[in-house]
């Protein structure tokens, strides 16, 4: 009776204590990772707002001002057809500036219209040379020679006058006037409404990309939290199941010693059917399998054997007393 009254399960307590410590360590690591991810997503959300405002500010920008192009135009060299008098040079420079200003404004307006809905149904922002020449001839009454001279000055200048000269292949650099196919404005002139709508579209597009990325990360965090919680609950359920199995196997062995049971062992499936109701066996299958695996590798007092019971081979559990019990009995 003294032997039966003492706690025969010191090994289980040690095992459960060590396993519980490991179980607590794992959720603690998960919680630390959860906190880090939460802080990261908070700062990412704040950064997303700042990026949205920054994109909106940059895309709005300021209206294209021709002042820079005009300043650069004034720096273009002026050929006065071998005439060196100041009056001729002043007239030539004024005519050149007028021609370039009209060309700049025309190309900027056409490019802006193309970017803002293209009401004139243009095929491209790059305006054909003949169309640009005809426009300047109608507005300024300039000859084709003046137009070609203006293009030559643009090609020979290393300054940015806000006009791009393009050939058949837009990727190749044009070096001569005869290879120029079309002219394009480097600074499309758009109204405030158009610039605002384009800025909003760009900002909202980028915002949606960032939003979906953040939504994916938040979803991943929620999934990880759910997974960690389920693992923790499953771990706890497994230890509870191990405790119940040990109690059942030990009680069966005690009953056998008192001639209340026919065999000193009990079938594993019989223990399962005793502890888990039929409606819960599918849901508890993983917990049961983990508990059986845990007992096989961590519990020395329960021995797994194979016996023929009622004409069928089945796996059984047998309670094995620790050696200290055997020595006391001797």
TrEMBL record:
Main location: nucleus
Subcellular location: Nucleus inner membrane
GO biological process, one term: nuclear envelope organization
Residue ranges with Low complexity bias: 13-24
GO MF assignments: chromatin DNA binding
GO cellular component, one term: nuclear inner membrane
Keyword vocabulary terms for this entry: Membrane, Nucleus, Phosphoprotein, Transmembrane, Transmembrane helix
Recorded superkingdom: Eukaryota
Region of interest (Disordered), ranges: 1-25
Segments passing through the bilayer: 40-58, 199-224
Keyword NADP: no
Keyword Phosphoprotein among UniProt keywords: yes
Membrane topology of the entry: Multi-pass membrane protein
First and last residue of the signal peptide: none
Matching Pfam families: MSC (PF09402)
Domain spans labelled Man1/Src1-like C-terminal: 91-320
PANTHER family, A to Z: INNER NUCLEAR MEMBRANE PROTEIN MAN1 LEM DOMAIN CONTAINING PROTEIN, LEM DOMAIN-CONTAINING PROTEIN 2
Name listed for the protein in its UniProt record: LEM domain-containing protein 2
Name of the gene encoding the protein in the UniProt record: LEMD2
